[in-house]
Amino acid sequence: MNSLKTIFTEILGLQPEYFEEFYKELHQKKLKKKEFLIQEGAVCDFIAIVVSGTLRSYVQNKEGEFNNDFYLENYFVSAYTSFLTQMPTNCNIEALTDVELYCISHQQFQKLIDKDANFLKVAKYISDHYFIRKCKRETSFLKNSAAERLEMIRKLYPGIEQKVPQYHIASYLGIKPESLSRIKLLTYINK
């Protein structure tokens, strides 16, 4: 939780009391590997911070599953569009490992914001991070090769290749696992 306290006090410039007040509203949640944090069709009524473990977000259609985000230690996790709109989500968030999280409900977060507008800084920080990650991914699909997208994911999610199976990374990149293996081999040979 030190990283969350750092966000409050050093990055956002809030007094430690704001972190303490926010922290009081958090509740711990543990997931086993392959357990869902949320599934398609449910309304997301929380934002969580990952204390340990790794999760993936994916959408599903008749052709299969398509990863669209990963959540590593110290990342905020939520079906964020659903959280903001309080409408059902179209994604699933699944634990890839055993996971420990701390969650705050939509209602409790809103109460904090209503009580003190300084909590809007926290909401903006979370929104900005989601927005930037989504924009980087969208732009990479429109502009970059698969090899360049692989470099982007390495920067966006440090250490991901040690935490997430290759076929999930390939899905996120929009390529087949065999193509990812070839890209990695070519990158290694060209070094």
- The CATH H-level homologous superfamily of the largest domain: Jelly Rolls
Total number of domains: 2
Name of the CATH first level of the largest domain: Mainly Beta
> What's the helix-strand series?
HHEEEEEEHEEHHHHHH
Gyration radius, to the nearest Å?
A: 18 Å
Alpha-carbon distance between the termini?
Answer: 38 Å
Averaged pLDDT:
93
The main sheet comes to:
4 strands, antiparallel
Roughly what fraction of the amino acids lie in strands?
A: 15-25%
Classification by helices and strands: alpha+beta
What is the correct CATH architecture of the largest domain? Sandwich
Principal-axes shape call = globular
CATH topology label of the largest domain:
Jelly Rolls
Q: List low-confidence stretches.
A: none
What share of the residues lie within helices?
A: 40-55%
Number of strands: 8
Please give a structural write-up:
This protein is an alpha+beta fold. The chain has two domains: 2-130, Jelly Rolls, CATH 2.60.120; 144-191. It is 51% helix and 23% strand. The chain has helices at 2-11, 16-25, 80-85, 106-115, 119-143, 146-156, 160-163, 166-173, 177-189; strands at residues 27-31, 36-38, 46-52, 55-61, 64-71, 76-77, 92-95, 99-105. α8 packs across α9. 27% of the residues are buried. Pfam families: cNMP_binding (PF00027). Residues 10-113 form the Cyclic nucleotide-binding domain. This is Cyclic nucleotide-binding domain-containing protein.
Topology at a glance:
Blueprint lengths: L1 H10 L4 H10 L1 E5 L4 E3 L7 E7 L2 E7 L2 E8 L4 E2 L2 H6 L6 E4 L3 E7 H10 L3 H25 L2 H11 L3 H4 L2 H8 L3 H13 L2
Antiparallel strand pairs: 1-8, 2-7, 3-6, 3-8, 4-5, 4-7
